[in-house]
Structures are given as structure tokens and as C-alpha cells.
Design goal:
By secondary structure, the protein is an alpha+beta fold. It has a domain of 93 residues. It contains six helices and ten strands; from the N terminus they run αβαββαβββββββααα. The protein has a four-stranded antiparallel β-sheet with strand order 1-4-5-6. A four-stranded antiparallel β-sheet has the order 7-8-9-10. The longest helix has 17 residues.
């Protein structure tokens, strides 16, 4: 009985500490169909993963370049078979789409910055009233919270357990320009 208990503990410890996740392992190449597969660094393997750069324009009438996006090169049949794609990894970087609700072959993905326990990415989306608009998305890998259209209020909520950082952030002008800095300090 004692040997069985010890063996069970060893198995549980190996499972718990041996889990592969995005923050403590080498990135695997492939397509993320769910956020769970992203958190676990368990993408669907996809042969011939071809990524191409795409320029998103903030103002299409003035041809003003805004943010560089990326597309997956695949046929409509392939994308229909896969269904929802939230992102992909080329083995070196992670790229995520701004919307977690859909994917089509025209969707743009944006390169993610790892800031401590956070994934941070900016991109553009089509706004019916004003053309393309920019947005910031943040994914908290620890709590597995996805913040679409990240706001000052989102960052204040994150910083709420570090009062000194929260107080400094509240005093900032143009707070949205300081998101990266505060996420990095929070992660230290």
C-alpha cells in the first residue's frame, strides 16, 4: 500500500510539473484552434505552414500604413475544414487574431509580444463608421483571461493588488501609451 501511494504521488508530481505550457517551453509550430491549445502550447500541426506579411491601412483613402499583420496562406477548403482559428506559431513567434469569434481566409493575425505572464498585441479592425481602427489585446497566461480592446480599466483591475503601481498609472497622461511598461513592471 505504501509503495502504491508513493508511486501515485510520483505520477501526480510528474504530471503537474511536466505539463507543457506557453510560458515555460519552446514554442511549437502549428495552428491554435482554441485558447486552451494556446495556453498549453499545443497547436494543431499543419504541414507547409506559410505565413505572409500584410499591411493594414488605417485610412484606406489616404493609403496611410498602420500596423503590419500576417496571413496564413491556405485554401478556402483548408480553412473551412479547420473552422475557427485564433492564431498560430511559426516556432519562433505567436500570432493572434483580434477576434476570437470567427476566422476566414482573409483574417489578419498580429505578432504577439511576451511581457512576463502577458501576451500583448496591437492590430486593426474594420469599423463600419470610420474605416480601420486600432486596438490592443492582452492575454493573461496566469489567469487565462482574454482582454479584447484592452482599456485603462482593464489595467487598473490587473494592477489593483499592487497599489504603488496603480497610483503611478493613474497619474499618467495618455495612459494607453504606457500599457507595456506597467504590464512589464507588474510581471517582475
Amino acid at each position: 500500500m505504501k509503495k502504491a501511494t508513493i508511486l501515485l504521488l510520483i505520477i501526480i508530481c510528474n504530471y503537474s510539473f511536466g505539463q507543457n505550457n506557453l510560458t515555460d517551453s519552446e514554442l511549437k509550430s502549428g495552428i491554435y484552434l482554441t485558447y486552451e491549445s494556446l495556453f498549453k502550447n499545443n497547436p494543431l500541426e499543419f504541414e507547409n505552414l506559410i505565413v505572409k506579411k500584410e499591411k493594414a491601412e488605417k485610412n484606406w483613402q489616404k493609403k496611410e500604413t498602420y500596423i503590419l499583420g500576417y496571413k496564413l496562406k491556405m485554401s478556402n477548403e483548408e480553412s473551412d475544414k479547420l473552422g475557427t482559428i485564433i492564431g498560430f506559431s511559426d516556432g519562433e513567434n505567436v500570432y493572434l487574431t483580434l477576434s476570437r469569434d470567427f476566422y476566414n481566409n482573409a483574417a489578419l493575425f498580429y505578432k504577439v509580444d511576451f511581457i512576463g505572464r502577458f501576451l500583448y498585441y496591437e492590430g486593426t479592425y474594420r469599423n463600419l463608421n470610420s474605416g480601420l481602427s486600432n486596438t490592443t489585446n492582452v492575454v493573461d497566461l496566469k489567469t487565462q483571461t482574454i482582454y479584447q480592446n484592452f482599456t485603462n480599466g482593464n489595467l487598473k483591475k490587473i494592477l489593483s493588488d499592487k497599489p504603488e503601481l496603480l497610483t503611478r498609472f493613474k497619474k499618467e497622461k495618455k495612459k494607453y501609451t504606457h500599457y507595456r511598461k506597467y504590464l512589464a513592471e507588474y510581471s517582475e
